[in-house]
Fold:
Amino acid sequence: MVKAGTKFIVVALLTLVCATSYGQITSGRIVYERKTNLHKLFKDNPRVKNFLNEDVKYKIEQFELFFNDSTSAYLPIESDEPEQGFMKYLTTHNKIYQNWEKQEKLAIMQSWGQEMYIKDSIHDRKWKVTESKRKIAGYLCRKAIWEQNDSTRIYAWFSVDVVPSVGPEGFAGLPGTILGLATEKGEIIYFAKEVKAMTPPEKKMAYSTKGKDVYNEKELKALLLEKMGKWVKEEDLDGMFSWL
Structure:
């Protein structure tokens, strides 16, 4: 026979477990909006600045992240009104597939209309978690900071209520999902607009490298420097690859 006091403790514990686990998401889809300040991003690039004016200051795009407890797929959402000409090449439209159990990723980079395939290990970023908090898409998030290099810091806001350690682009490694991401000076900002619990469609999680040239990051950097060394510098590539 269960005593009344013991019964009360059991009920209280069950209530606590239900309360803390309620609403946690382990698989689903997140829609991110990315806002790029082109004037800030290209302030040191005179060739690009000549194409920009106050009417062409921000570029807003959407991406979707499908995830479960072991894999994820980060994909661009095609606009109903595709851009034409030079403007469509000013921002990245990477597809990134990650397998956390194997610590592997496949990134498909778009470069001037061509796809480049990169298969490598997942980046191990050293995050500093702070006490700063804010709500994003209805979820309470905590702020973390990654020192990309001596002059660049990346801010991330993650929620433990969306369980997998994943986020936009190739960013991950925090105790929860990244719902907000921004460069320190605000050149590039991602915020989740919708978080939905669901089983990711298989076709969204699938990819094929059949018939494609696949490189690791080191190999592709060397190839790009060899072919495009007149237009890009090694530090430019380091910055670009750091997002994968």
